[in-house]
């Protein structure tokens, strides 16, 4: 088996069919499989996945409900995978035409690969503008090492095993940590521009802000984990205090449109999450 496509899922009944239909339409000459790793869904996620058995003959559904979190689901599926290459995508997005072939071609020369992220197809325009994702994203910048998103990521199976998979103690930013550890181990991260994923953002300001807070909360822990590996200090009290001080002014100015309001609230929640994370993880970013 050349390729294993891995989809961690938790209650993705409303979106999974779109992703599986996109995979069923892929053209790839080598043997490949799809593994849906169910993380304890209480909706019809598993039933919907099983309905695609005739369109994706090498489709399997594995139980990954023992531990909550997509990191565990990805690891369970990777352990069951037969492919030389592991391709990770999510159950609420949609891979583009030729995604499997583009990822596999890139992995012939690289250890870890990230693709292009497109945002207009599955999201309302105001939401794309709120994130400043009008031109899409290539590899993500972090102020340290670049990283690939877990919803558009390919890796050699042997490399995944060498770094012991995703860190299951992380409920957020697992893909950042994973990409960094792969590179710290001496492996190469490359970009595959033709491996396109249409990403689905959170659909309301409230859900965007909740997600931003959780990501911000995880950042201090991520820094504590990687600072001995050469990660420079990215967080600072100065940046947090500046955001808090300017927040009322920026909030008033943002009331002119929904995208601006969402952007300001999202940044405020991210900083709030960072501050709470610093307190919770007993980290002083001095």
From TrEMBL:
Q: Which SUPFAM superfamilies match?
A: Nucleotide-diphospho-sugar transferases
UniProt KW Transferase keyword: yes
The family database entries (Gene3D superfamilies) matched by this protein are listed as: Spore Coat Polysaccharide Biosynthesis Protein SpsA, Chain A
Recorded hits in InterPro entries, A to Z, give: Glyco_trans_2-like (IPR001173), Glycosyltransf_2 (IPR050834), Nucleotide-diphossugar_trans (IPR029044)
Q: What is this protein called?
A: Glycosyltransferase
The record lists the organism as Thermoleptolyngbya sichuanensis A183
Q: Name one Pfam family in it.
A: Glycos_transf_2
Q: Which domain of life is it from?
A: Bacteria
Q: Which UniProt keywords apply?
A: Transferase
Specify the Glycosyltransferase 2-like domain's residue ranges.
4-159
Molecular function per GO: transferase activity
């Amino acid at each position: 088996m050349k390729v294993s496509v891995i989809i961690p899922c938790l209650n993705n009944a409303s979106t999974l069919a779109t992703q599986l239909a996109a995979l069923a339409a892929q053209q790839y000459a080598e043997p490949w499989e799809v593994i849906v790793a169910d993380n304890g869904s209480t909706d019809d996620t598993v039933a919907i996945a099983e309905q695609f058995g005739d369109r994706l003959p090498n489709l399997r559904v594995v139980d990954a409900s023992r531990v909550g979190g997509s990191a565990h689901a990805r690891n369970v599926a990777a352990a069951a995978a037969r492919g030389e290459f592991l391709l990770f995508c999510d159950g609420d997005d949609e891979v583009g035409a030729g995604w499997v072939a583009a990822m596999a071609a890139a992995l012939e020369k690289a250890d870890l690969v990230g693709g292009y992220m497109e945002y207009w197809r599955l999201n309302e325009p105001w939401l794309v503008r709120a994130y400043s994702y009008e031109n899409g994203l290539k590899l993500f910048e972090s102020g340290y090492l670049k990283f690939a998103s877990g919803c558009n990521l390919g890796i050699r199976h042997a490399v995944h095993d060498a770094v012991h998979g995703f860190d299951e103690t992380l409920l957020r930013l697992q893909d950042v940590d994973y990409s960094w550890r792969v590179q710290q181990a001496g492996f190469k991260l490359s970009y595959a521009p033709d491996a396109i994923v249409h990403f689905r953002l959170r659909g309301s300001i409230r859900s965007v802000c909740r997600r931003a807070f959780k990501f911000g909360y995880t950042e201090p822990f991520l820094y504590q984990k990687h600072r001995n590996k050469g990660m420079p200090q990215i967080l600072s009290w100065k940046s947090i205090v500046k955001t808090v001080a300017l927040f009322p002014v920026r909030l008033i100015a943002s009331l002119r449109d929904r995208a601006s309001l969402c952007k300001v609230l999202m940044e405020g929640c991210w900083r709030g999450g960072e501050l709470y994370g610093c307190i919770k993880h007993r980290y002083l970013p001095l």
